[in-house]
Write a structure and sequence with these properties.
With 349 residues, this protein is α+β, with helices and mostly antiparallel strands. Helices cover 20% and strands 34% of the residues. Bound molecules: FE2/S2 (inorganic) cluster and fe (ii) ion (FE2). FE2/S2 (inorganic) cluster (FES) is lined by residues 55, 57-58, 60, 74, 76-77, 79.
């Protein structure tokens, strides 16, 4: 078993770095993803690059250095590395008669993609097969700016973060509040699911009639929820030609820390006006999840066996099955076969 499997991290997949506005021209940002320290920077010409954020000399982080032409300069002794190839270009301390082969020194580079104002990095399992097998997520409509953007750290492994994200039954307990749910208003739910790319979709339906928050939207909203590995959930609420798009991304930092990021995009005027309130609700909502996950660690610390029941935890079972299939098909170099079968799931929430 490789280290990657032990930590439950997925490779040969795209991870979310952040929105375009977070990385300014000529600036760099450090980001640890799946146990790998990365530096993501923007060249003067506007394009994005990513390298391992550890200098091969004495391990200082490039992210605290600077970008000079097409290289990053380490803040410790000024070694410079090409941002495309990762190859060492300069070692300032070398005298003219010392012939160290600096082109043999290099730092790993990563493929990045910037589209729809979102930045992605591709983490391959094996550098020799660094060619992406899939493309990162595209927004369904063109919008420039997120109206809400909130992130926090969940103190758990990526698997618990994802299962929490797609768990339909905790709402009335964890998110008990007048504008969302209460155990007294719990109702039967029947939802139809289908396989979708590297995940599954809950086909378009009218959102929960027992949620005050949805009532605010007015009209006749229809929502479609999609989940995809490594940890990506979108909810697209459509009212006529207008859309409110909620994107939730969980990204593993290390074995016990996961970042959750909640972003909303919309072309609905009413939501833009209400965005300060929505920002407050979002923060509260995510912190409720972060708190229950923290409590859950009290049990997880003793490594218990856990139960996944039908149908409330069927999505969690699918998540594990999809991950396994992704690892298997990558290892064997064959096509991905989505293990999810179209079905109806029932639960009360
Ligand atoms: S640690 Fe980077 S140049 Fe020495
Ligand atoms: Fe939640």
């Amino acid at each position: 078993m490789t280290e990657t499997h032990e930590n439950n991290f997925l490779f040969n997949t795209w991870y979310f770095i952040g929105t375009s506005s977070e990385i300014h021209l000529g600036k760099m940002k450090r980001k640890v993803i799946a146990g790998q320290p990365l530096v993501v920077g923007r060249r003067k010409n506007g394009s994005i690059f990513a390298l391992r954020d550890t200098c091969p000399h004495r391990a200082a982080p490039f992210s605290k250095g600077c970008i000079i032409k097409n290289t990053v300069e380490c803040p410790y002794h000024g070694w410079r590395f090409d941002v495309d190839s990762g190859i060492c270009k300069t070692i300032p301390s070398l005298t003219s008669d010392q012939n160290l082969k600096i082109e043999r020194i290099s730092v790993p580079t990563y493929i990045t993609k910037e589209q729809d104002n979102l930045i992605w990095v591709y983490l391959a399992n094996n550098r020799s097969t660094n060619k992406p097998r899939i493309q990162p997520y595209r927004l369904p409509f063109s919008t420039k700016k997120a109206i809400i953007d909130y992130s926090c750290i969940l103190e758990c492994n990526i698997d618990h973060a994802v299962i929490g994200l797609i768990d339909p039954a905790h709402g009335p307990y964890v998110h008990q509040q007048w504008w969302w749910r209460s155990p007294k208003k719990i109702k039967d739910k029947i939802k139809y699911f289908e396989p979708y790319l590297l995940g599954f979709t809950m086909k378009p339906h009218s959102p929960s009639s027992n949620s005050f928050a949805y009532k605010l939207l007015g009209g006749n909203p229809v929502t479609e929820i999609i989940f995809q590995i490594p940890g990506f959930r979108t909810e697209e609420i459509k009212i006529g030609k207008k859309t409110l798009l909620s994107i939730t991304i969980v990204t593993p930092i290390n074995a016990n820390k996961t970042e959750i990021r909640q972003i909303f995009f919309t072309n609905l005027r009413i939501i833009k006006i209400l965005s300060p309130i929505l920002q407050m609700f979002t923060k509260k909502f995510i912190q409720q999840d972060a708190n229950i996950i923290k409590l859950q660690q009290m049990g997880l610390a003793y490594n218990p066996k856990m139960m996944l029941i039908d149908d409330a935890n069927t999505q969690a079972k699918w998540y594990y099955a999809i991950k396994k299939e992704w690892n298997d098909c990558n290892e064997l170099g064959r096509k991905f076969k989505n293990p999810v079968k179209a079905t109806t799931l029932k639960w009360r929430t």
